[in-house]
Amino acid sequence: MRLLSAKRRRTKRSGRLWGLVGVLLASALIFAVVCSPAVVGATAATRKLPVYCVQRDGKYVSLSFDAAWGNEDTKQLIDILGKFGVSATFFVVGDWAEKYPESVKALAEAGHEVMNHSNHHDHFNSLSTEEIRADVSAAADRIEAVTGLRPTLFRCPYGEYDDHVIAALESMGITAVQWDVDSLDWKDYDAKTIYARVTQRVRPGSIVLFHNAAKHTPEALGDIVEYLLREGYSIVPVSRLLLSGSTTVDHTGRQLPA
After folding, report:
1. β-strands 254-257, 53-54 pairing
2. Model's pTM, two decimal places?
3. Alpha-carbon distance 120 to 207, whole Å?
4. Which residues pair with 207 in a beta bridge?
5. Neighbour tally for 77: CB within 10 Å
């Protein structure tokens, strides 16, 4: 009986040992698959991203504004930017352009870019490729009717996108643009908070996000522009920030020379 019990104990220990070896081998296999440069590289290469920021040698930055609903402060924003001789990019919704054509015209006449932010501010991830193309074209028609220029840049409503959204835009020859510095002005933060968020995060090649009709943006904007100019930044519209020629977008959304 003692001999039989000893054999059973050795068998159990051997089974546990082989079980542990099996777990370790399985873990090593999973680690190798997940961390393999070939696998990671393939995943990153197939994912489509908009431009969040741009690799620039000099200190260039773009200020962008989304215009979708209200129009309380558009004239004030134009005046503040004009005071410093700065041009920005306004991504406007087609419905907004239809409702406030005088503001769209004023933005264009002041030297600002008026680009596309969709026709109705829908959730693009839920739209088909055909619906995306129709929506973007309809908004572009409305903007072009006022400014005489057809938008070449697009900002997805709510900042939402996936591969099929970016692919649809690319098929139209349109560049999707996000941001890497979010003022969060739509949360009605005070001017001091907006100023701190932007100035602490901005870097060469950044695209800063603001909104028109945000409560404290006009109050913060002048101080932000003064800071950027004092720090040696050139403030340019997004189309002038983007690189020309053959480019690529890395896994962080940074546009680089190809």
Report:
1. parallel
2. 0.83
3. 23
4. 62
5. 25
Three-state SS for 258? coil
Positions marked catalytic = 66, 211
Helices (H), the chain: 2-35, 37-46, 74-83, 94-99, 101-109, 129-147, 163-171, 191-201, 217-230, 238-241
Q: Tell me the C-alpha distance between 73 and 203, whole Å.
A: 27
* Nearest partner of 81 among 106, 47, 118, judged by Cα: 106
First to last CA, the chain: 76
Pairing of strands 89-92, 181-182: unpaired
- The helix (run of H) or strand (run of E) holding residue 120 is none
The size of the chain, in residues, is 258
If we measure between CA atoms, which residue out of 94, 102, 86, 88 comes closest to residue 67?
94
CB-side neighbour CA atoms (13 Å) of 19: 6
In the structure encoding, which two tokens stand for residue 104, read together? 């769209």
In sign, the C-alpha dihedral spanning 43, 46, 48, 53 is positive
Judge contact between 137 and 173, C-beta under 8 A.
no
Do 145 and 92 touch, CB atoms closer than 8 A? no
- Over the stretch 169-210, which tens digit does the pLDDT of each residue have? 999 999 999 999 999 999 999 999 999 999 999 999 999 999
- At which residue do the structure tokens 């996936």 appear? 162
